[in-house]
Design a protein that fits this description.
This protein is mainly β. The chain is globular.
Length: 104
């Protein structure tokens, strides 16, 4: 399984299950703004109510394709698990390959 590194930046609502805003840097220099329930973004139980933000997190994702991005950097076209979408309704993102981790 692949995980993409992102950053939880602020609490939208801390009442269970909690909602958090996450920034996902894309390979073109833009930042995708994601807002969803804490369990969607937190597989290791670090995003608990009252936790200090910003916090680096990893979001499970599928790598759909690899390509060479700006500056010759290896990048990936990914889809986040749990149907996570950004504020524009996008569910697929282009990220630098160095932002991805692979875990068995």
């Amino acid at each position: 399984m692949h995980y993409v590194r992102a950053e939880a930046v602020r609490w939208v609502d801390q009442v269970w299950p909690g909602w958090v805003e996450v920034h996902l840097p894309e390979s073109d220099g833009t930042v995708a703004l994601l807002v969803d329930k804490v369990p969607v973004f937190d597989y290791d139980d670090r995003l608990v109510p009252g936790a200090e933000l910003p916090m680096s997190i990893q979001i499970p994702c599928d790598v759909l394709d690899w390509f060479v991005g700006q500056g010759g950097i290896r990048s990936a076209f990914i889809r986040l698990h749990f149907d996570v979408e950004d504020q524009s309704g996008r569910t697929m993102f282009k990220v630098d390959g160095g932002r991805l981790d692979h875990q068995s």
